[in-house]
Structures are given as C-alpha cells and as structure tokens.
Fold these 2 entries.
Entry 1:
Amino acid sequence: MLPYLKKDMLVFWRDRNELLVVLLVPIVLSVILGYALSSWIEAGPSDRSASIALVIEDNEEEAFAEFRNVIMGFDREDSWRANVLEDAEVYRVIEGLRMTFASDEVKEWVEVAETTGNQAVTMLQEKEVTAILTIPRGFTLQALERAWLQEGNGGTIMISALEHSLKLDLVTGVVDRYMREANVGMGLRYVLQDMPGQHQLEEGMKLQPKGGMELLDSVKPITSFQYFSLSMGMIFTVLISATIAFHASGEKRERVIERIRLSGNNPFYYLGGKFAASFMIAFLQLTSVLTACHFALGLFYGRSVAFWGGLAIIVIVFSFMVAGLAVFFTSVMFRMKNIDAANALFNLLLIIIGVIGGGFVPLYVLPEWLRSIGEWTPNGHALTMALQWIQYEDGGQLASKLLLLMVYAILLAALSAWIYPRRGRAV
Amino acid sequence: MLEAMELRKTFKGKTVVDNINLYIEQGEAVGLLGPNGAGKSTTISMISSLLYPSSGDVRLDGRSVLKTPGDIRRIIGVVPQEIALYEKLSAYENLRFFGSIYKLKGKHLTDRIANTLELVGLTERQHELIRTYSGGMKRRINIAAALLHEPKLVIMDEPTVGIDPQSRNHILDTVRKLNREKGMSVLYTSHYMEEVEQLCSRVYIMDHGRLIASGTKEELLRILSGEETMIVQLSKPSPELLMELRGLPFVRSAEETEDGVKLIVTKQSGILTEVVQAAERHHVQIVQIQVHTPSLEDVFLHLTGRKLRD
Ligand SMILES: Nc1ncnc2c1ncn2[C@@H]1O[C@H](COP(=O)(O)OP(=O)(O)OP(=O)(O)O)[C@@H](O)[C@H]1O
Ligand SMILES: [Mg+2]
C-alpha cells in the first residue's frame, strides 16, 4: 500500500500551487467573513423565534430588607453602613436583567415571558420556549453579600433547556454579558437536562447535577472568527475528497489504472493508498488553516490543554471522514461511464452539503427543515460538534458525536470497497 | 506458451472481435496487423486479462487463465496504445511506482529502473516530468514501464504510433534487442507493415474483428505468389482509364496513386501490351512501368481491398 500512498502524495505535491490556494482561500475568507458577518454570528438569528420563560422566585424588596438587617447587625461605624446601603440600593440585579431583555437590541429577537416555575416547565416541554431562566429565591441577597461583604459565592442564575442549540447559546450569551457588566456577585449555572422535573425547578438553587444531566458553570460564546475559520477550514478540507476522486479519474482516463490492475495487486491497496493520502492531506490542511487562523485572529487564546486535545481529535476524525468520502467518490467514479459527469456530480454534492451543513453561511439563517437535514450531513455534523466543543468543552457529548462521525467514515470506506470493481475477475 | 481460442467480444450487440485464434511460442515475435478499428486493442485487452471475453478462452501453457488473471498478469508486460503514465511525475518516479507495485524493492528496483531507462535511452532525462516530454519520449517510458518486472512476454499495442522517425527506430531497436538478446516473447500490434516485417517471424492480419490471414511472411506472400505488382506512372490522372483497367480480366485490384495507378495482376504474358493499349485509348501517356513481386502491404490490399492506413 505504501507505494500507492507515496504516489498519491507526490501527485498532490506536484500541484502545490493549487494546494497553496486551497490553503490560503479559507484563511482569507475566514478573516473577511469574520469581520463582515460578525453581527450574524454574534448578534444572533434574525428570526424572532427565540423565546424564554423567566421565572423569578426571588423577591427584591425582601432581599433588601434582609440585607439592611445584616448590615445593621455589623459592628461598624454608621457612615460605613449608610454608604453601603446607599450604594446597594441602586444594585438592582433582577431589574437590571429585565431591562437588558427589554433593551432594543435584545428584544428584537428574544421574547421574554415572565411566569411561574410550573408553567415554565410546561412551556419548555411544549417547545414554546427555548429555555427557562430562573432567578432562585435568595439570589439578590446572595449577590449583595458577595458584592459588599465578600461573603458566600454570590447569587446564581440558572438556565434550563432540553438541548443545546444556537438560540440557547445566544440567550446564554446575553445573560453572561449582563452579568459581566454588573461585574460582581453573580454566577451563571447552566443546566441541560433531558426532561426537567417540576420539583427540581421549584427547588431552585438546590438543584445539583444528577445522572443524565449536565452542569456547566459558564458557556463561552462563539466568535465569528471561530465560526468561519472552522466552517471554511472544514468545507475546503471536504473538497479534498473530490480532488482525490479527480486524480483517480485521471488514472482511469489515462489508463494508468490498467497498469495497476495488470500488476495483480489487490485493488484494496489502491483504495487504501487513496484513503491514507486523503487522510493525511485533510489533516494537514485543516490543521494548517486552524493554526494560521489561531495566530492571525487569536481564535482560541487561553484555552486549556484539554480543549486543544479535543480539537485535535475532532480534526483527526474529521479527516477520516474526508478520506472515507474520497474513496467513496473514487469507487463511484470507476462505476460511472462518464468521468466528467462523475466529477461534476461530486463537486455539486459537496457544495450542497457544504451549504446546508453551514459551511458557507451560519446554520441558523437556513430554514428549519433544511437545517435539520444539514446537521446530518457529515460536515454539518462535524461543524456543530466543533462549535459545541468550543462552547461547552463537554467531553461526553463530544465522544458520542465523534462516534457518529467515525461511523460515517467507516460506512463510506466500506461502501467504497463494496462498489469498487471486483477483484479477480477481469472485468 | 500463450494461446487465444475462439475469442469473441461483443459490445452492446456489436461484435468487434470475432472468433480469433492465435498463439505465441516462447521467444517468438508475433505481429498483429490491421487497420483502425479492426479490433486489435480489444483482442490484446482480452489476452492480457483486462477485458473479459464474451466467449472463447485464453490459455497459458494449456491452462485457462480467464478465471485466474493473476497467472497471466505475472508473466506479461503490456505496453498500452495510450500513454499510461502519471504526467505530473517524473520518468523516474513513474518507474519507481510501477516497479514497486510489482513488489520490486531496494537495490533491485533501482537497478531495474536504471536498466530500463538505459534500454530506452532516457537515463539523462529521467528526472524531468513526463508532462514536459516529447511524444516519442513518452512512448519510450511507456515501454520501459512494462519491462521493469522482466516479463516473459511483452504485449505492445502500437508502440510507435504518432512519433518521429528517430524515436521510432529507437523503439524498434529496443524491441528487437529484447526479443533476440533476452529471448523475450513479443506480441506486436501495428498498422505499419514495415515494422511487423522487420520484427516478427509470424504475422496475424485482422480486419473487421476477424483474422483474415496468418503465417510467416513467406507464407503470406505466397497468397499472392501467382501475382505481381505493377506500378504505372502516368502523364496525367485518368479516372476513365482506372475504370477500364479494373475491368480487365487479369487485374486483381487497381488503385490510384499520386502519379498513376498501382495494379495487382495475375502473372501471364501480354499484360504489358494490354495496359499500354488501354492507356492509349484514353490518350494518357505512360511515363514508366515497374513490375515487382508483391509485399505484405499488397497482400493486405488484396485481402481487404483496403490499404492498411486510410
Ligand atoms: N468499450 C467499448 N465499447 C464499445 N465499442 C468499443 C469499445 N472498445 C472498442 N470498441 C469498438 O471496437 C472496435 C475495435 O476497436 P479496437 O480499439 O480494438 O480497434 P484497433 O484495431 O485497436 O484500432 P486502432 O488501430 O485504431 O487502435 C471499434 O469499432 C471500437 O469502436
Ligand atoms: Mg488499438
């Protein structure tokens, strides 16, 4: 198999000018689109369908009364007490959150319904809302204590949802940003669960992670540069599969394939060489694009080693998928009479799955039905997976998604081996 | 050594190879001759296991190899009609790849590459890309690639088509060397009669998918032993004269040439007089007449009524 791999790599290398273009274009596009369309990614979807249920279990007036008692209980000079109470009076976090959601730029696409815990759960289950935002009892007091007395961990806002989604991320982003601006005394608890039980929500703050539930302290929003570096990097890497099939069609057209058949080698050496070459080229390509974008645009500064490890695994499995696609196309091409039609078909197919997989435009600008197909395309699936990894660094979720991508790769490779013109018989 | 029996190939109901029987002995050089579209390449593809015949059999030392293509693939080297090389790789890289898929390795592989490059006379330019080669040079590497694994039988499909005389002579010399010095069997396809006459001890002639004659050069010439070729140079072309000549009882075939006519005639006395008289009747002067025994080209013309190259 090694001679085949070497040969395919060499053929690719001879086109290194082309290779350079394929490498530079996604980087340049990431920069341009990252700047030009940053509002698309960061300001959220233009359809106003994101809606949340706001459950306020806390009572601000009671909290302030309680806080006054606490302050009065301190053995400090009166001027200090007066100052703290005066400052704290304007620190109305719940009101502040309400105002944030009422602000022009947010209310344009997030609809907020204030309601009770039970009602909210029903709405979530009926999919009327994307998420439930809960301000638990004691929130204000805890926030105030944290801010002025450095006591406790501060109040925690809770977001509950049935599943990860881009809308959810955007809502989370708004809350996160608000809390950063308010700066003190608050944390965000993010709860993702299959089916939130009512009692859990009513218990509010006491909610603890249980089986089947994931809990994350913070969610990092996606920047437009991250989005486009990944989507462009991936789509151009996927195109390698068509290039490999194109090279194979050259081998068919120029009859080199007949020499190869005459050697009596197992045809799977030939396919294996193509698989290995595609894998290596895809890996190098995506790694180079992401690395270049990282240094040029500061994509992932300050991220942990674990994050980078996960990203590396994503790139590796993704490259396997591209290799699977490459050998699949190659076999189909050998089965088709018209070589040009075959190549045109592959490119068309890639562009289609590229678009519906979010390769060129953010997923959420696509209609719902198309998006749900798009998330099942190998590239769309990989992109969603990578974006979620950037935001949540959730290993379990990553593993299950990687598995599916690996299944794609294996399925494509197996299919390719199956439809490749049979060995032994002189067809 | 190798035998093709009643080979037939039908593409979509059209029979392009019909009932071909041929054999090649160890060390023999055999020619397969025929005009464009005669079915030569198709026949070769079936023999070399690239194409499965519609019916018939291919046997190696008496054993059928249709179901076990590996057996025949091991001992043959095929020079395809098209240049089957990687244009983007150098000659050396091409040979290295084709050698290594025949499981040649290390020093042996390097030696074989050097050897074949020398044989085809391209050692100096081995590191240039095939894309930058002339047609003749590509043809030579195309041959070299089939020789790396030292096949017992090399099958060549029009290895000299469309190239300059120098490259052509080089290729012919190479083939002769392989056959005479190395004892390699050769199946040589061409539509150049001269090449086949020079190289091959036996010739098969194909037309419209069928074998129309076969044998040694002498045997084939004997087909026309009772005949001779008459090349008549005329002062001006005359279609009427050609018509009349064709009508004469002793003329087997008559064909217009650049400056006259070429006749194949049955040997008998008085022919010259009749030709001269016919010319006079049409007011055409005969500049010159040559009479000689027929060539293989003439045999072909006789058998098919067509020239080898149209
Ligand atoms: N795959 C195919 N499908 C249909 N017809 C074919 C196919 N391959 C060859 N033919 C037909 O079979 C006939 C013989 O073709 P072949 O290539 O064997 O001729 P050839 O003697 O090698 O001619 P040339 O001197 O031009 O190479 C031609 O009429 C050709 O059109
Ligand atoms: Mg041919």
Note: The two ends of chain A are 22 Å apart (CA to CA).
Entry 2:
Amino acid sequence: MATVFIPPQMRDLTGGADRVAAAGATLREVLRALEAVHPGLAARVALGEGIAPGLAVSIDGAITARGLLAPVQPESEIHILPAIGGG
Amino acid sequence: MATKTSPDKKKTGKAADTTNGEPQAFKVIGTRPIRHDGVDKVTGRAIYGADVQMAGLVHGRILRSPHAHARIKAIDMSAAEKMPGVVAVVTGKDMPDLRDKMADLGEGTVNLAHLGANCLAHGKVLYKGQAVAAVAATSPHIAEEALKKIKVEYEPLPAVTWVLDAMKDDAPLLHDNVFTSEMGKLGKQPSNIAVHLHFEKGDVEKGFAEADVTIEREYKTASVHQGYIEPHVSTALWNHDCHLTIWTSTQGAFTARQQTAELLQIAISQVTVVPCEIGGGFGGKISVYLEPVAAILSRKCGRPVKMIMNRNEVFEGTGPTPGSFVRVKLGAKKDGRLVAGEAWLAYDAGAFPGGMIGPGCMCVFSCYDLPNARVDGYDVVLNKPKTAAYRAPGATQAAFACESVIDELAEKLGIDPIELRLKNAAREGTRRVDGPTYPRVGLVETLEAARNSDHWRSKLTGKNRGRGIACGYWFNIGLKSSAAANVNPDGTVTLVEGSTDIGGTRTSVAMQLAETLGIAAEDVHPQVGDTDSVGYTDVTGGSRVTFATGLAAYEVGLDIRRQMAARAAMLWECKPEEVTFADGVFRRGDKSTSFKELAGKMHQTGGAVVGRATVDPEGPSHGFGAHIADVEVDPDTGKVTVLRYTALQDAGRAIHPSYVEGQMQGGSVQGIGWALNEEYFYDDSGRMRNASYLDYRMPTAFDLPMIDTIIVEVPNPAHPYGVRGVGETPIVAPPAALAAAIYRAAGVRLRELPMAPHRVWTAKKMTNDEC
Amino acid sequence: MVKKTHVSTTINGETAEFLCEPRQSLLEILRDTLELTGSKEGCNNGNCGACTVLMDGLPVNSCLVLAVEAEGATITTIEGIAEQAHLHPLQQCFLENAALQCGICTPGFIVAAKALLDRNPKPTEHDIRFELAGNLCRCTGYDKIVRAVQDAAAALEGKH
Ligand code: FES
Ligand code: FES
C-alpha cells in the first residue's frame, strides 16, 4: 500500500493522523480509497481530473504532471504540497 | 568533480565518466561553441519585441492609476476619442467579466478576474500604476497626449504597503472575495491573508528543549524588481477573419496564448503567439500585461497595435518580488548538530493573491537535515504591484534569514561555518520539512568544493574587511516541452523547439541533440517556434529549459536514430534491430556509414527524416549552491564594496559551461543588488518614489569585481546527460553571504535588506554608542 | 502639429536624410523611421545605455539626443560596427566569451566599448568597468563583458 503523508492543515480530515496507507495503482484510486475512510479529503486534493488549484502532489519525490492519472507504486510515498513554479 | 571554470574558454570536451550507470564520453557536451543566434545579437539584427514593424501599425499607451487604492467612480473618454490621430480607447469594461474563473497555466493556477484586472482595472484600483484605460493612436506621442484627456474620477481609499500592517485586523481590506486558504480550506471572513501554510516535522518543542544553543532572529526584505533591460512590449493584430496574432516578449508563448484567450474568452486556436527575441525575464515575463490590451485595441480599430511600456511603467506596473518579514529560530547541540528549527514567514503578494509563499516555506530549511521543524507562512495582499516570480521566487528572502542564523550559530558554537553546514547538510534520503526526501543531490560536494577553493583558503587582510559564506537552494522544475527536427541531406539538422531563448538555451538544447546524433553542435540549427509551429511547451522559467527541453532534444535524437537505422537496414538489406549506432556511425557487421553519409541517401530510402518528441519530466532536480563573498565596509559612509566573490553550484552536468557560469554570475549579481542597494521606496501615500533606473540603482560594471565560478557536477539521475537546472539557485545565497561578510568587516549584523550604506552606518553607530 | 524638420546626417558611412518632429529623439528616428532597430530602448531617459550610438566619434545615449540635433553629424550605430564581411573584434570577442545572454544590452555595450577602445586602446579592468558603468546589463553580472572587452583590446593591438 502507498503511504500518503497528510499535511498538518488537512489532518482535521484524518482524525489527526499524519500519514495514512491507501491502495491504488493511480492517484485517483488512492484518493478514492482514502475518501472512503476520510470523507472530504479527495475534494481538498483534487479538482476534476487535476490537482486542486495551488496544490501539487509529489509521488516518490517527483511532482506529478499527470494529475489523478499519475501511477502509484505499492511502496510509494505521496505528499500533498503547495504548487511551485519558477522564474 | 569540481572545476574552476571562469577564464578558460577552450573548446575541449569533458573526459569520459559515468553518468547514471552509462559510461559516457562526451564530444559536444562540456564544450563551448558559439551560440547559434550570436551573430544576429552582436550586429543588431535580432528581432526583439520592439523591433516588430508592419504596415498600418498604430501605437498603444496605458493610463495608470495615480492612487495606491481607490474606487473608480467614472471614466470619461470622450475628449480622448475625439483627438485627431486617436483610433481606439478602451477600459476594463471592454474585457469580459470573469468573476471567479480559474485557469491552469501549467506553472500554476490563476484567478482570471485578478489577472484581467491587473491588465485593465475593473471598478477599483489596488496599486499606484495599475492600468485603467488604454489608447491607440497613429503615433506614440499622440497616444501619450490622449491619455491626459481621459478623465477618471476616483474615490481614494486608505492604502497599506507593509506586509505586517496588511495582516492587521484593522488594515484596509483589498478584496471582499479573498478568504484565507489553508491548503484549500477557506476562512469565513474576507481577509488580506490569502494563504496560510503550515508544515511540521518531528517534535519541535522537544527538539528545542534538547538544544544547547538556540538563536532566534527577525529579518525584513524590501520589494525588488527583476530589472530586465527590455521593457514589456507586445504587438497585436486582430485580423478581419477574427484571428488574433500577437508578437511579444514573453517567457512562454503558449502560456501567453492561453492567458490571452482565457481573458478575452476566445478559443485558443483563434490566437497565435509569436515569441520575439526576449530582453530578459527572470520570471517577470510570464504573466500577460499588454497582450490582451493590445488585442482589444486592435479589435476596435482594425489595425495592428504596438504597445511598449516605459521604464517607469515597468517598475510601477509589473511584478516585483515580495517584500517580506521572516523569523527563524534554530537550536543546536554543542557539537553543531541541528536539533530543531522554526520559521514564520509573511510575504507580500502585491495587489492580488498568489505570491511566493509556498516555495518560501519549502525552501527556508531546504539545505539542512532538521529532525524537528515547524514552518508557518502567509501570503498577504496589499497595495503594491502584483508580485511576479523572480529567479528562485520566494527562496532568497527565506535563505537570507535561515543562512544568517546559521552564521550566528557557527559563531556562537565556535565552529567553522562550512563545517557546521557540512555537519547538517541535506543529502540523499534527508526528509524535508514539507515531507518528501531528497534523491541524490550535490550540497555536500558543493560545500566541500567551497572549503577547498582558493578563495576560502586564501587569507583576507586589511581593515574593515570580512568574508562570509552562505548556501542557496532551488527546486528546478520539469514540465512540458516539445521539439522536432528535420534531417538535411548534408547531414545537418534543423531543430524547432518551443522554449524562448533568454540566455543561450537554443545552444544548450541543440548541443544535446548533437551529442545524441554524434554530430557537431554547429551542425544543428535551432529555432524557437511560435504556437502554430511547435508542440506545447511550458515557460522558459524554473530553471527547466536545458533540463526538460534538452531532454526533448535527446528524445528527438533517439527518434532520428531509430529512423536512420531503418534506412541503413534498407540499404544493407537487414533488420533495423541489427543496426547499431555509436559515435555518429551506424554499423552492421563490417558495414558502416556515418550519420552524414546516410543523410545524403535519405531521398532514395524513403524521403525526409523528421524526429519529434514531447516530454513531461517530473521535477524537481534540486540545485544547491554556496557563495563566498569578501567585502570592505567604508567606516565613514557605511558603503559596502564587494572585493572578491565566488559562486559554486552543482549543475548536475554543465552542457555549455560558459552559459552555466553566466547564469551563476548573473544570478549572483542580481542577488548582490538585492542585498546591497535595490528597493522599492514607498512614501506614506503608497507611491513608489524611485521608479527609474537612476534612482532604483541596479549594480553597474563599476560596482563589482569579477565573479568567479566553480561548477560542481553531481549528475542528476533523472536526466540522460545528468542535467540539473542552473538558472535560479545563484540568486539565493548572496544576501546572507554578504551579511555574514559585513558582520566580520564591521561588527554589525544587518537583518534588513537592502544593506544600504545608511543602514550599515546606522547599525555601526548604534553598536559604537552602546560600547 | 508642428511642421517636420528636414535633417541630413551621415549614418554608418552613408548619407541619411529624414524628416522629424522637434520632440522626436534620435533613437526614435533611428528605430522607427530609418528602421535601424539594432539600437535598443531600455529606459528612454539616459539611464541604461542600450541606445548608445557614436555621434561624431563620441558615445551618446541616442534617447537623450533630439533628432534635430543630429543635423550635420556623423553617426555610427551597431549596424555600422562590423567591417564589411567581418565582425569587429569586439563582436567576435563578445561571442567567444559568451558575453551576452538575452542580448538586449549588447548593441549598446559594443558601441560604448568601441568608443572606449578608440580612445584608450589598452584599458585596465578598472577603466573598462568605469567607462561602461553607464551601460546596464541585468543578465551577465558583467564578468564576461569585461573579459570580452579585454580580449578585443588584445586582438586589436595585435592587428595594428
Ligand atoms: S534607452 Fe537610452 S539610455 Fe536607456
Ligand atoms: S545580456 Fe541581457 S541585459 Fe545584458
């Protein structure tokens, strides 16, 4: 199962848990699995097919470019981060 | 692994070494060919945005708000419209009403109503210099005169220009539809605080309780401008078939196209953006300012409209970087091991939300392995121009604070500042405060190269002199790039890519294609395509072009190699898989043919060979740097002179070392300017009082020494040639490095940027008075 | 509108005549009327040097010169620096030293550096930095520009 790290500002939705395990081959599946246990989380992370405005998702250290279609490995570490751009 | 590179221009390739498991002996990478667009740029032939000429061209000018905050009660344009020579006048009412529409621009999401109001105000002005109306006329002088005839009735409102003031409960509220977002959870009351971020790792209280030494300090930085020498410029033609073509100076033609289409609510396919040569950007030429305005003027008058900002407008109407307040607290054991950190950052976003607080929070402790840490950050709107990205946006302010505290810790613990950093340096596996762990990164190697450098080992003698060191970090992003290449019968290749070239990237991208094909850099002819002639490509920014568009060029090379191998197989009557390729030569058994020879037979083996690739590599590729500065402080005036400066950086792999050095030198000098004298100087009514180059005073050649560079190469495992981005990291370290040097020269710790003579002098005087 | 004035000059070795309004700068005429767009506008008020041209051998900010003042003057712009088919050593040295990134400041630097080398063929680093302080570059940090001028001075010395 992948490990999703929950940022402090979303822990109100996970009963304070800072990381939760979830199964799924894509980010969409992982979020769906999470949503079943922690309702409201998916809506905060995703919007439509993409990541919610202002946020980014890092899977194993790489900021995913594929939104919810991003592949997830069984041992993946998933982080929800603020979006970054650059100059 | 570190090479001191400055004066050596020899065209020699890198020695064979091992990148990412593959033995690699480079022929092209690591050499210094003359850039492909060079001759046009030294002869004045290159066509920049302002050089666009066409029949029937008229000139647009913008009327800007004289108030920092005001309601627009009425605009009377009738006198201007009647002036001979005036062909169109527009206001915000001529743009669609976009309410709270959002658009994903690849590099981030923007609120279109905000973006639109930043191009032409709707109902309210939020900073002095905000665009209110625009005129097109047969000459720029007539347009300028017409502006004076537009009557705008304002109701001035109280303004706020300092971030901590804007956060107060009784501060003037800029927007009644901005609510504090905490990772997507919105506050209930409208607020100037657009974003609050919070990261936490470990047990911070326990960490500080274990510390032998704790230091907590507060830092302030002023707004500074990107300062590109070419002002914003756009020419738009809304043709009679309703197709809109825009020739513009932009870091990203595709994002300019998308922003313009979204703002005008027209189809993307209705817009072609032609990126002209661009005279600098540094993050400030990603948002559109003039493009939609020139477009609606052109729609109104049926002629091409050219708009050029003057320098004053660039300062007052386009993106500076956030002014900031940052508090950093670090705790360490006696042996120098960091045990806890805490940071509180407030960055101003300017008049609209969407500042640089995210990366600020993620970068503040990015150089260190902190077991316990907490970061809080605030993105705050106030009555200054909407901020724009500026080279490692948000990182410099944070590093000034963190690196300065590290320097104080080193002093208090009696540990050499490089040793203290090495003891705590982020490395592979270090978990960042925001969560992810680092892959293979080069901070340790960079610090070791600093410790071994001539500069660090040399003695600095003389009165009022001091040396400082600081680290810097930037993510370096990935994103989308496309490229295509045609093989010519003479064995050369034309390459079309979508990244506008601001600092020689045509060449660094072309070199990667040349390397992949085993041909000379000069045998690739790179061009930057417009939005109709190349696949989608994200902005030239985030230190991504040599990395991501370079990767696209590599993939194009592989595609061409595959196709050419099939041609060779046809000639040799074998299977394509049996053909191998190395060093520019295709082989099978005892048969061989060079890339050039085979290209000559292209037409008898099936016609043109066109390679193409589109990539979307996932960043970040993590760039670390360390800067060493020697300064002398004039005891009578407080003026700081930089005597010697060395920038070190892990480039992963330097494709064209001269342009890597150039990025390091240019970024260092922007950082030096930020540190020592640049600032937006505001009066009490929220007016910027120094909106000219003369008064803003960026560094000149006379203010500086040579900037030495040491390129460290710890190859990026996520790129076939090991490239990491290099453009942004070099601006991050200078303020803290200079503050540390000033402390050793003058005995005072400066905690506010710029460290201008009056501040240094006053700080010195205060310490002397205390004694 | 005021009547236009007839001005006759020599630009890059050729006679150039134009009509201009009294308020138009030499830079504006060069760029918009004569289509010599190599001289750049960075500030239009004498602060950046991107518009530098030689007027009777001396470097001037063409944005601060009124076009009418150019009557009878001999002007060299960036377009007139190369010698027929050959780049000027300054141009060649700027290329070899990678002394340009975005390149917008480059025409101004090359023209100003030519004025410097014409007057002072063996400038020290200090001389170069002092003489070019009126030309702003935001990309390079000046290091490679200074080296390019040093190399050009050496190359020109070898030529003479
Ligand atoms: S444009 Fe003339 S000095 Fe800047
Ligand atoms: S090369 Fe860009 S301003 Fe000098």
Note: Chain A has one domain: 2-82.
